[in-house]
Amino acid sequence: MTKSYEFNWQKHLPEFMQEGTSFDRFDEDPYIFEPNCRMKVDEYGFFITWKIEGKEGQVLECSLINSIRVGAIPKDPKILSSFEAVGKTEADLEGCIICICSGTDLVNLSFMFLVAENPDIARKWIEGLRSVIHNFKANNVCPMTCLKKHWMRMCFLTNVNGKIPVRGITRTFASGKTEKGIFQALKDLGLPSGKNDEIEPPDFTFDIFYALTQKICPRTDIEELFKNINGNKTDYLTVDQLVSFLNENQRDPRLNEILFPFYDPKRAMQIIEKYERDEELKKKGRMSSDGFCRYLMSDENAPVFLDRLELYQEMDQPLAHYFISSSHNTYLTGRQFGGKSSVEMYRQVLLSGCRCVELDCWDGKGEDQEPIITHGKAMCTDILFKDVIQAIKETAFVTSDYPVILSFENHCSKLQQYKMAKYCEEIFGDLLLRQPLESYSLEPGRPLPSPNELKKKILIKNKRLKPEVEQRQLESLKKHMEAGETNTPAIIMGEEDDTENAEKEAEEKDLISEAPSLSEATSEKETSSVSQSNAVSSGKDEEQNNGVRKIPDDEVTEISEATDATDISEASDQDNNKKGVDVAEDSEEALIASYQYESATTNIHPYLSAMVNYAQPVKFQGFDVAEERNIYHNMSSFNESVGLGYLKTNAIEFVNYNKRQMSRIYPKGGRVDSSNYMPQIFWNAGCQMVSLNFQTPDLAMQLNQGKFEYNGSCGYLLKPDFMRRSDRTFDPFSETPVDGVIAATCSVQVFSGQFLSDKKIGTYVEVDMYGLPTDTIRKEFRTRMVMNNGLNPAYNEEPFVFRKVILPDLAVLRIAVYDDNNKLIGQRILPLDGLQAGYRHISLRNEGNKPLSLPTVFCQIILKTYVPDGFGAIVDALSDPKKFLTIAEKRADQMKALGIDTNDIADVPSGSSKNDKKGKGKGDTMKVSVTQQASSEMAQTSNSINNNTTETKRGENQLCSRHVTHIHAVCSLSQTAFVAFQIPH
C-alpha cells in the first residue's frame, strides 16, 4: 500500500512567543515609536502580530523576514529622546534591541526594532524567531494552508474596535466579483454584509471563510474533473473510483512499484476519512466533491516530492561533485557602475543559502589604512573589509552548515593584506580552515574533501605563493616578529631582503603558483572597458594596459578581455534608478567609455597566502594541461563569454575538468546594470560555482533559487552520476539520450488560476522548460488571455507537451503568470527530477522567490518514459500487461457472444490503427512497424543501458519504469544549442 508522506513543515514554537511579550517598538525610517507593544507569534509561525489599544492590529509575515539579530543603539536623537521620555537611557538599551529585517527580495529591505526589558528576554526572542523564519519548508505549504494563513491575517488585522471590517474581506475577492455579490455571499452565511459593517472574530471561523471562498469563486474546474471520474452518475466517488483516479492520474508510471506502491482501497479509505466532511458519506466509503477538492488542495498533492525539500542527497562526495550556490559582486545592491555597496548584502545572500560570496578588496585611503570592499574605480561606495568579515561570521552557518567559500578579488598592498589576514584569523577563529585536512593533503591526485568534512568551515579563495617562497617569507616574518620588530613596515609587508629585491622583477611571476587566468588576471571583473584610443593601441603598451587585440590561443587567459565600450554604455542606461553615487548622465557615459579595470595583485602577503588551501585560483592553460597536472585543489574562473567559448569548442573536456576540480563562472563586463546570464548552460557542463548577481531578481536568479531550494536549501546539490564518474563521457550538447539515463515526456495542461491578483486584469500563463539545449523550450507555450478576472480565470488549454526530455535530472519547468501588460504576477521553478505527476496546484512566488500566499495555478502534469513513434503499442502492453490482456479477453468474449469460436481467431500482426494500439490476446506475438531510424536508436539505447548500471542514490526517488526496463527509446531532435537558450548579450 502506498503511504502518505508526512510533511512536517511546522517548527516548534515556544509558549512564551505565543503568549506574547511587551516590547518598545521603533522604526528609523520613517520614524515610528510605539512603547509597550505586546508582540506575539501565532501557533503556526506565520506572523508576528501586535496591537496597541485604540489602534488597528498589525502583522509582519514571517516568510518575508530575512534576518533576526541584536540591534545597535540608535543614533537618531529623536529616537533616543523618545526612550528618555519612557525612562530608558542608552545604557538601558545595551543588548536589549532586536533588529528584524524583512523584504520581498534581498535589496528592498525594511528594519523594525524591538526593545526588550532585559538582554535575556531579547536573546530568547532572537533564538525563537530565528527558528521560525529560517524554515524553508513553510514556503511550500499547500493551498489549503495558504487559505488558512490568509484568514488568520484578516483576523489579526482588526480595526480600532477589535473587529474584522467587512471592507477588508471584500478586498480578497475584488479582482473577480462585484461588491454586491460578495455582500450577498456574506449574508447567505449569516454574517454582517454591509459595506461599513464589522464582524466579531469568533464568528468568522476558518470553516466559514472557506465556505465563503467556495461561494464567491466555486471550483468549477474541480467539479468537472469530479464528474469525469464518476461518469456524472452520482454526487460522490466510490473507493474503487478513487483508487483508479489515484493510480491512473496522481502517480508517476515511471516510479518503482516497490519503493512507490500502488494505491489500494485501504489507502483510499484513509484519504476519505481525512478529507471528507460528510459523516454519512464517510461511513459508506464515499467522497463528495467538497472532500475531493479539499484533498486536491492538501499537502498530499504537492507538485514536488516534499522530501526533496529536506537534506536528502549524499554529502560525502568531493567538493567538485556538487553545484554550489554562488554570488558575484556580493557587496552591490544594484548596478556595477556608480552603485551602492552594502554590508547587509552579505548577510542576506548567505541567509538565502548561498555558499560562495565575493569580496573585492582595495586599499583604504584613510589614516587608519583599513582595507575596503568596493567595485574598484567604478564610482561605487565603499564598505569596510572588517565589517563584512563580521557579518559573514554572524550569518555563514545560520541557514546551512556546509562550507562557505570567500572569493577574494585582491587589489590590496601587502600591508593591508596582512590586516585582511589578521581580521579573518581573529574574527572567524576556528571557523576558518587555515590548514588542509590531514586526510586531504595538497598533492596531485588527491581529491577535494566533501561538504560533510568541511562543515562549518570558511575557505578562502585567493592567489597563493609557491610553497617554497611562502615558507621562506613566513620564516622571515616570524623571525623579525619574535625580535619585536612587528611595527617595521617592511616586515609586516613581508618584503624580501636586498638580494631577493634585486631578483624580484625577474621572479615576480614565479611568486605565484600559477599566473592568473584570463578570468583571474582580469580580477574576474572585466567590468572594465577600454576607451577607443586604448583599443587601437599596439605592441608592449597594449599588453600592459589590457587593451583590445587579437588574442593568441596560448594567451587567451593571460590578459583582460576588453568589453566593447558601446556595450557598457548601452547597458548603463538600463538601471539609472538604483541607489549609489550620483553621476551626471553625460559624464557617466564618458567615465564608462574610458574605464579600465585594474588587475588583481600578484604580490601576495605570505600570511594571507598560507590561509589558502582547497580553492587555489590558477592560470588556465588548457584542459589537457589541467588533466596532466591532476591537481584537484586548483581552480580557474571564466567570464561567461570565455566559458561559452570553451563550451563551444571543448564541451566534453569542460565536463571532465569539472569532475576533478572546480570552476567559477561570472558575468561579463557589459552587464553594468547587474543583469545575469542564463546559468543553465554552465550547470549542464558541471560548473560548480555559477556566480550570479543576487541583487537582481531576474529569470536567471529565479532558476538559481528554484534549483537550490532542493536538498534543504543547503547551497550544495550533488551533480548527476554521469557528471561525476571518470569512466563516463557526457556531451552537454547531446541530442540523444545519455547512456543509462531514461528520457522523459512531460505534459502540462493549465486549467485555471486562483487569487492571482487583487485587480481586475487580464492574465495568461507561460510554461517553459530549461535543461540541455535540446531540452530547452522557451516562449512557445502560453495560454489564452483571460480578461478582467484576476480572481479565478479559467484557461482550459490543451496540454503543452515537451515531447522528449533527454536529461530530466538537469531540466527545470517554469510556470509563470503575466498580466495584460506582460508584467510578471508570479512564477515557480520546478526541477523535473522532483516533479509529481497528476492534478496539482502550483503555488506561485514573486520575482524574488518569496511565496505569494494565495496565488496558484491548477494544472495536470503527466510524466512518462519517452517512447518514439512506432513503439507505443509494445510499450503500452509491457507497461500495463493486465490492462492489455483484459482488453484482448474482452474482445474475445464479445466475439464468442456472436457465436465465433476462439480457435478460429488467427494470430496476425498488430495493426497501426489509432483505435487498436493495445495489441492482441494471450499467446499472441506482437509485431510493431517502426522506422529504420527508430529501430536503430532503440538498439543503440538498449545496448548502452545494458552496459551501464544506474547507481541507486541514498534516499532518492527512483525514476525507473515498472515494466519497460529494457525499452528506452530515443529520437533525434536537432536544435541549435545557443539559440535554444537565447543567451542575452
UniProtKB/TrEMBL annotation:
InterPro entries given in the database record = C2_dom (IPR000008), C2_domain_sf (IPR035892), EF-hand-dom_pair (IPR011992), PI-PLC_fam (IPR001192), PLC-beta (IPR016280), PLC-beta_PH (IPR037862), PLC-like_Pdiesterase_TIM-brl (IPR017946), PLCB1-4-like_EFh (IPR053945)
Segments of skewed composition (Polar residues): 928-940
Which residues does UniProt mark as catalytic? 328, 375
Instruction: Tell whether S-adenosyl-L-methionine is among the UniProt keywords.
Output: no
Query: Can you give the residue ranges of the C2 domain?
Result: 727-852
Pfam families membership = C2, PH_14, PI-PLC-X, PI-PLC-Y, PLCB1-4-like_EFh
| Reactions it catalyzes | a 1,2-diacyl-sn-glycero-3-phospho-(1D-myo-inositol-4,5-bisphosphate) + H2O = 1D-myo-inositol 1,4,5-trisphosphate + a 1,2-diacyl-sn-glycerol + H(+); a 1,2-diacyl-sn-glycero-3-phospho-(1D-myo-inositol) + H2O = 1D-myo-inositol 1-phosphate + a 1,2-diacyl-sn-glycerol + H(+)
Could you tell me the keywords of this UniProt record?
Calcium, Hydrolase, Lipid degradation, Lipid metabolism, Metal-binding, Transducer
Cofactors demanded by this protein: Ca(2+)
Could you tell me which residue ranges the PI-PLC Y-box domain spans? 608-724
MF terms from GO for this chain are: calcium ion binding; phosphatidylinositol phospholipase C activity; phosphatidylinositol-4,5-bisphosphate phospholipase C activity
Cited Gene3D superfamilies: 2.30.29.240, C2 domain, EF-hand, Phosphatidylinositol (PI) phosphodiesterase
Bias (Low complexity) occurs at: 528-538, 941-950
Any idea which positions bind Ca(2+)? 329, 358, 360, 409
GO BP: lipid catabolic process; phosphatidylinositol metabolic process; phosphatidylinositol-mediated signaling; release of sequestered calcium ion into cytosol
Compositionally biased intervals (Basic and acidic residues): 501-512, 914-925
Task: Note how many cofactor molecules are bound and how.
Answer: Binds 1 Ca(2+) ion per subunit.
Region annotation Disordered: where it falls in the sequence: 477-583, 906-953
Documented EC number(s): 3.1.4.11
By what name is this protein known? Phosphoinositide phospholipase C
Q: Which organism is it from?
A: Nothobranchius pienaari
Q: What is the lineage of its organism?
A: Eukaryota, Metazoa, Chordata, Craniata, Vertebrata
